Each structure stands twice: as structure tokens, then as C-alpha cells.
Amino acid sequence: MAFKKRDKAEQYGLINQTSGKPSKHRDELFHKKHAVFFKRVLQVLPSQQLDTHRISVAYFAISGLDLLDSLGDIENDKENIIDWIYSLQIQPNETGTNLDQCGFRGCSMLGHPYDTQQAKNQQIPYDSSNIAMTYTSLASLLILGDDLSRVHKKAVIQGVKSLQQDDGSFVSVLEGSEYDMRFVYCACCISHILNDWSGIDVKKAASYIVQSLSYEGAFGQRPYNEAHGGSTFCAVGSLYLMGRLQVALSESQLTALRRWLLRRQDTGFTGRPNKDADTCYSFWVGAALEMLGVLDLTDVTFNRSFVLSAQSPITGGFSKYPNHSPDPLHSYLGLAGLAQIELTTT
Fold it and tell me: Is 156 within the bounds of a domain?
């Protein structure tokens, strides 16, 4: 295993083949280039395939700038961005008959951009919120310094409640969708942010999470699915927010979970066995290990060097693998992974 890790480290240029030490050029964070990358993302948000997820892409950029301590770079645009996010809110009507639909949509395609009053007065039939977009909207507002005073909190919580299924899982939209661990995590984050857990049957949600624990020792997206780094983060994060991490799982299950996560380190971290390391899992797996109290057992040097090797020295941003094109998701998660090992402040 040690030889395999060293071979891959040399392949990606993470270590000097002569000295065996980490390559010096992998120790530099291109801070200014990444800030420019995220500002560019905010200026050219997707308008086709990812249009309905536009707020999530904006969240990656806003949170990325926050991690870089560069929110001041968009100071003049903050209020404009905040107003745009609020215009994505599905607001309750006067009779309260649409509460199950309330929350935030992902883009203004079905709404009224920048005009919250028009959005309230001219509501669109069959227009429903998306639980993931509601989470990223609320998180973005908080990062931008908003006090959430314009959020219809009770309506948002009712919108979350309407999405929980009988088995404890959540769908993303009222009209129906796939149901899995991602949306359980989003529901928990929304409840935590608004300090209101009345929209979740916590017992059912925790039961769904435990049933999704695979024979491998980690969590799949749903019961009987293969264990995966992303769904494991969502499961651990959900139990952590619910205050049930140490209650829902036995000590032997927690030990097996820690072991599975620790074994995901190659140079960086992989999402599943026999897969290559991927920038985003430095956060997904790293954050799960941090919540479980064992992130200090990982090889920080290899992790840091791998993530930094995925930077683009030309455009800024991080890619999935070294020498690939950067994208907003991996750029944000790469920085978030580095933040866990306290690199972004240097």
C-alpha cells in the first residue's frame, strides 16, 4: 500500500523523485487567482443545463470567496445578490394553501428576478421549491451577512415537512424525485439554520440513515446501496446535526465507519474503493473524519499536496483531478478540504 501511494504521488508530481520529499510547487495556494475564478463564476452563472441549479453554483462561489477571506471583493454586489436570492423564494399566499410548496427555487426561470414584491403578488401555479436549493439559498444569505429576516421560516419548514417520505427519506421537490441521503442532509441543515426541527420526523430520518449503513461499514445513498464517501458525509453530518451520531450507531459500527473512511486515503481521498483520488473527497471524507474525531490520523502532507496539485495556475480554481479543467464545485470543495487542515489562511 505504501508503494502504491508513493507511485501515485510521483505520477501527480506530489513528491520529488530524487529526494522523496513533497514538491515545493505544490505548497503554494494561488489565492488571488482563485478569488478571480469565483468572481468570474458569479458573473457567468449557467443558463442552460444547470440553470435550475443556479443558486447552488452561486453558493460554491460565495462560500469559496468566504474561505479565501475575499468577500470584500464583491462588497458592491452583495445587496444585489441578496435581493436576487430572495426573489427565488416561493412565498406563502394569503390563504396559506401553498405552504407545502414553500422554500427556494434554483433560478429565476419561473420567477421574477430581483423583484420580491412581484414574486409575491404574481405567484406561478405549480411552482415549488427544491430542498437542495433552499439549503444553498439560506447558507448563501448567511455568508453574505443577511439576518434571514425576509425568510418565511414557518413556510419553509412546512415545505421541508412535505418532502419527507414514509421511510424517513426526503425527495427534492414536491412533484416527486429520487430520494436519498443528500436530501436528508439538506433537510437537517435547513432545520439547523432556522433552529426549527418541527419539519422533520427525526426518529424516522435517523432510522433511514442507519438502514443505509452497508456491510462495508459506511453509508450508501439509500438502503442496500454501495457505501460512498459523499453519502457517508451526508449521513454522518445529518446524525451530527440531529445530535444522534453517538446514539444511533453502536461503538463497533462507529469503529468500522472510521476505518472505512481512513482507508479512503490514497494520495488525496477517494469516494469508493478502487477509485482514483478526487479533490472533492478531501472535504467529504475529511469532514466526516473530523466529525468522528479522527481526521488527525490522516496523512495531511499527501492530502494537501494532492489538492494543491489540482489547482489551475492559469485561470484559478480546482479540478477533479490534477491537470484537468477547474469547475465551481471542486474549487469550493477543494478549498473547504484545505480549510480543514488550516491551509487557506497562509
Answer: no
Q: Write down the residue that cell numbers 444553498 correspond to.
A: 136
**DSSP code per residue over 52-107:** GGHHHHHHHHHHHHHHTT-GGGGGGGHHHHHHHHHTTEE---TT-TTGGG-EE-SS
pLDDT of 269 > 50? The answer is yes
pLDDT of 289 over the 70 cut = yes
Question: Count of H helices and E strands in the chain?
Answer: 15, 2
Q: Which three cell numbers stand for residue 82?
A: 441578496
Report the phi/psi class of residue 69: left, alpha or beta, with left for phi > 0 and alpha for psi in -120 to 50. Answer: left
| Other CB atoms within 10 A of residue 295 CB | 19
Asked whether residue 186 carries a pLDDT value surpassing 90, the answer given is: yes
3-state secondary structure of 130: strand
Which residue in the block uniquely carries the three cell numbers 442496500?
Answer: 224
Q: Is residue 114 part of a domain?
A: no
Strands 103-104 and 89-90: antiparallel
Q: How many domains does the chain have?
A: 1
Boundaries of domain holding 22: 2-72+165-340
Sign for the CA dihedral angle at 35, 84, 164, 195 comes to positive
Tens digits of per-residue pLDDT, 90-138? 988 888 888 999 999 988 776 666 666 776 666 777 788 999 999 999 9
**What's the pLDDT score for residue 151?**
97
CB proximity list for 97: less than 8 A, separation 6 or greater: none
Exposed / middle / buried, residue 4 (Cβ in 10 Å: 0-12, 13-18, 19+): exposed
CA distance 311 to 308: 5
Q: How many CA atoms lie within 13 A of 311 on its CB side?
A: 24
| pTM > 0.85: yes or no | yes
In a domain, 125, yes or no: no
* 336 neighbors 67 (Cβ within 8 angstroms): yes
- The verdict on residue 21 lying in a domain is yes
Q: What is the CATH number of the domain that holds 11?
A: 1.50.10.20
